[in-house]
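Data availability (excerpt). The following record was deposited with the supplementary files.
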Amino acid sequence: PLTRSWFLFEVAQTVEMEKGGDPDHHGLVFCTRSGVVNQGSASVEVSLGLASRLATLRLQDATASVPKDHDDIKEFVVKNMGGFDKMNAAIRERISDALMESEQVVMTSFQSIKSSLQSSASTLG
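Predicted structure:
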């Protein structure tokens, strides 16, 4: 799905909606089968895999089965989003932010587990 023109359009629409300042709009949320990257509930492997893929994704290479859809979406991106370089940068910025959130959750979990282990070890010895 990451290489489909309609994915590109949905990302562009989401980025466009972020500009509106609507407090109910949550921006680009990276949902996976293992959880939500932005919330730190996705597995580390999935989060890193998605980020790795998005780091090299070129949205201008997206395809569509209907050529007119593809052309209209490309025109929208160029006209409204400032072009593909800006769109690529925008999606990378958002996955980077999501990874930072995920990292915080993971590190908090690691610290909690380490503290529990250290408490258990100190009561034994």
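Summary of structural features: The first helix runs from residue 5 to 18.
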